[in-house]
Amino acid sequence: MASIQMKNIVKKYGDGFPAVNDVSIDIADGEFVILVGPSGCGKSTLLRMIVGLEDITSGDMVIGEKRVNDLAPRDRNLAMVFQNYALYPHLSVYENIAFPLRLAGAKDEEVDAKVREASKTLELDEHLERKPANLSGGQRQRVAMGRAIVRDADAFLFDEPLSNLDAKLRGQMRSEIARLQKKLGITTVYVTHDQTEAMTLGDRVAVLKRGLLQQLASPRELYGNPCNLFVAGFIGSPPMNFLPAEVDGTTVTLPFGSVQISAEKAERVAGKGLLIAGIRPEAFEDASVVDSGREGSTFRATVEVVEWLGNEAYAYIPFEAPPEVQQQLQQLERDLDGESLRTQLVVGLDGSSRIAEGDEAEIWVDTSKMHLFDPSTGENLTIDHDHAGEVPVRALEPTPG
Ligand SMILES: Nc1ncnc2c1ncn2[C@@H]1O[C@H](COP(=O)(O)OP(=O)(O)OP(=O)(O)O)[C@@H](O)[C@H]1O
Ligand SMILES: [Mg+2]
């Protein structure tokens, strides 16, 4: 096992466009790191540079203590687990797992010992004589991992291994991979554009946008302290609400009325003019079901649609936004790959709420959970840097376009 250090990694393809642009990520031995971001942001390119399937334009790739930029893939001792698992259909599970050892000319006793050990860990003992075609998707995935385990690889690399599976199986496989990674303690890098996988699997998550690392942090940190509009909009479902916000002292005027923020937050946004407020759906509640002692602000608004899900409900409240804010939100929508951000507020309500469509309802909001973003750069001005992981300076530069 080994640590993986990426230092200022750049990848330019033939046309000179930096598909990966100055990315630095330190992955500890045994750590599980997710690379996430919309299509084309450079996730696969970065992963392929770790394995050695793609040349590195500049920067250093260090695995363990060794710089591997010029090493061939087979000399890096990493195991890539592909989406289609690439199992040999005519070989038994046993021989599929044994394959890399046979290739290396290992003795039969060594092969047998290693295959049996891997099969025990992966709970494949009763399937060893079967052919891959007779296995479930989950079992096949384990066979593919078995092949990686017997090689004693320094790290596992996954590129969207679950994207072909249906939602239910994907959920099962997700917990399977998490369980095995914990058990084996193998350094793992996992590419996905699914934010649920990103949130549930990784020790830390690297969010990429057009080749640039935006933020590298634990799922909790990303969720609670996104560094900019992009990360805030990408992480969380339903997504964070973005609203025009006018700040005057500790008073923030939103489309629905005014709320109060702390003096400390007010100081950080003083004199900034028009901002974008970010509030997650669950920071809201039906005012009539909130304990009167709880701190927060309330406002009245007309609810257009209510989706009741039993334990919770979502109310939709349309609002108007000025052109500056509209423009930034439309750009964000494009950056997020078409994830539609309508100018409507999505308010999470308790399942017991009686708010119905067409009501003018009283809504409560926990303003301590509100972020304020600079509309020109997208930067989160109210970020708590102690709980935000790593934010490269470049992530906060204004993006062209
Ligand atoms: N062989 C190549 N030649 C030229 N450009 C490439 C090549 N491979 C990838 N790119 C470009 O590099 C950028 C990053 O591609 P990459 O495949 O790493 O994205 P990704 O984040 O894995 O996306 P997806 O989620 O769609 O798999 C894209 O703009 C892509 O068009
Ligand atoms: Mg990809």
Automatic annotation (TrEMBL):
ABC transporter domain ranges (all copies): 4-235
Keyword terms, alphabetized: ATP-binding, Cell membrane, Membrane, Nucleotide-binding, Translocase, Transport
Membrane-spanning intervals of the chain: none
Entry GO MF terms: ATP binding
Pfam family, one: ABC_tran
PANTHER family assigned to the protein according to its UniProt record, in alphabetical order: MALTODEXTRIN IMPORT ATP-BINDING PROTEIN MSMX, TREHALOSE IMPORT ATP-BINDING PROTEIN SUGC
Protein name: Sn-glycerol-3-phosphate ABC transporter ATP-binding protein UgpC
Classification lineage: Bacteria, Bacillati, Actinomycetota, Actinomycetes, Propionibacteriales
